[in-house]
Amino acid sequence: MSLRWGSIAAWTPGVIVAVCVLGPWLLPDPPAADPVHAALLPPLSRVTEVTFADGRTRTEPVAETATLPADDTTTPSGDRIVRVREARLWLGSDRFGRDVLRDLLVGGRVSLVIAAGAVLVALLAGLTVGLAATSGTGWIDGAMMRIVDALLAFPVLFLVILVAALIQPGPWALVPVLGLTSWMGLARLVRGQVLALRGRGFIQAARVSGATSHQLWRWHYLPNLVGPVGQDVALRAGELVLAEATLSYLGLGVPATIPTWGSMVREGHRVMLDGWWLATFPGIAIAVLVISLAATADRIAARWRRAG
Amino acid sequence: MGVDRTVTRQILRRLAMLVPTVWLVATLTFVVVQAVPGSYADAIDHPRMTPAMRDAVRTRWGLDRPVHEQYALWLRAIATGDLGTSYVTRRPVSETLARALPPTLLLAGTALALDLLLGVLLAVAAARRPYGRVDRLLTVLGLGLYGLPSFWVAGLAVLVFAVGLGWFPASHMYSIGADRLAAGHRFVDLLHHLVLPACCLGVVGAAGTARYLRASLLDLRDARFVTGLRARGIPERRITWLHTLRPALAPVVTLLGLSLPVLVGGSVVIESIFSWPGMGNVLLTAAQARDVPVIMAITVLGATAVVVGNLVADVAYAIVDPRAREAE
Questions:
Q1: Higher pLDDT, B135 or B265
Q2: Would residue B190 be called left, alpha or beta, if left means φ above 0 and alpha means ψ between -120 and 50 degrees?
Q3: CATH 1.10.3720.10 boundaries in chain A
Q4: Fewest CB atoms within 10 Å of the CB: A141, A263, A297, B30?
Q5: Top-level CATH class of A100-307?
Q6: Cβ neighbours of A6 (radius 10 Å)
Q7: Is the pLDDT of residue B1 over 50?
Q8: What DSSP assignment string belongs to A94-129?
Q9: ipTM over cut 0.95
Q10: Quick check: B287 and A162 CB within 8 A?
Q11: Contact criterion met (CB < 8 Å) for A249 and B288
């Protein structure tokens, strides 16, 4: 991959975050969900949202060339129309007539927050265990690493399915569940890096010349940990996005009332034959995010190697 | 002689780790199950369950005893090979597992074989001309399969190959009424049903294997022994298949061992999508019903499989790469 593509890909996660966070504010309000008249409309559909005097709304597809009724008119059946609004369903609507684009952005927020929270938990746990292992005696180190090895042998999805099924989670229950099942790799990485650094000449030189342990950590260990840990965190974030999506797809993650990319694919597969767009767009969103996170990880690794 | 000894020692050491590892995993599962408030007695979803009936259920399965007593009982039972009785079906757990294990082994085994076979073929094709057309196609494909969720790919496969083209059945392991078919036809029916789930599980893995093996092959491309072989006029194809593939495969074998938890987990998703009557589906059902004996048994089995798989991978590594033996 050329450098330009690499850097574009590396910035994509940031762009996705920005779009999901700002998108729902910047976009015009979606038309009211109308499960009777506006269900399963294909992408790019043009719809009108009609508000009646009694507060009811009705959203229905209209032809591209059709002229819309004016505000403050009365339909042939005698209903008084207060307001007529035109909207476009860029990514179509689901079987309840909801705007897929809006759900994609709002669902993306949920997926991103869960993944970010879980990464943070994993980072904290991994750093703590990894650093504790290197600062303890050999015996503690050995015991801790055996435990980490044992946990690595655990089919993580088993545990996550188990916990998710047991606690009927709210959206945020997934954060500790995912975070506490994915810190082991980080702990090993941190431990390995610190042990490797400890033997390097510049650290020994610093120690011999009387650097305090605070100085050693501040100026020598931590700056050299940022690269590998950053790379690992970016890759892990992608894995956690996939894990959250998988759980939501299985119906075990976030409650069905909150859209996430995984549950949108689940919904889409239910009506696969009537609406290809429902599963397609969230699936692509997940893929783009995960792949670009991998690119970010590559980029961090490359930059760190150049600096180091 | 010395070689055999180190390999044996390696195996013995890993075998010694097996029991504590599985114990740790099982205990962790036990803690998790106990830490969540409520038990099977509370999870029974029936409008006519009275509190008294729930209490009776609790007493029946010993759920009212102190946690440490339950733990001791369970540990004693499992140490003697007794997996317990399912709360829901009231049949021995071993019976349920005996029924669910063969389908899972078949699915995961086929997927693993497909993973390795396809991975090797693709990697060799890509490494022949690095950054050539095949290589670039493989890179894009590999990236796509890395990022796309497996359930999404599986859904697409069902849509295209089962619904659209009608080549393969969309779910289950046998057609309806297959039990009345002759053994040969029954087997063909099984294979027919196996194609889609095994491909969904295997092809995703193959993309990763191929990427890894390609890098591994390219590393060896300018090794001294390869230059030597080339100088002796040995055709490139022969060099690849007979000389560089074996050392290049060594790290891939470890990778396959490490990816076992992923395979085990991934088969849960694929089994759920294709209604494959294996362990994954049993686990999902049991987890929702809080059928603890079944959950515990499957976790213990899964962890054992992963540890043994890693052991096998390590031994295979030692066989493929003599340097690993000396490093011991």
A1: B135
A2: alpha
A3: 100-307
A4: A141
A5: mainly alpha
A6: 15
A7: no
A8: -TT--BHHHHHHHHHHHHHHHHHHHHHHHHHHHHHH
A9: no
A10: yes
A11: no
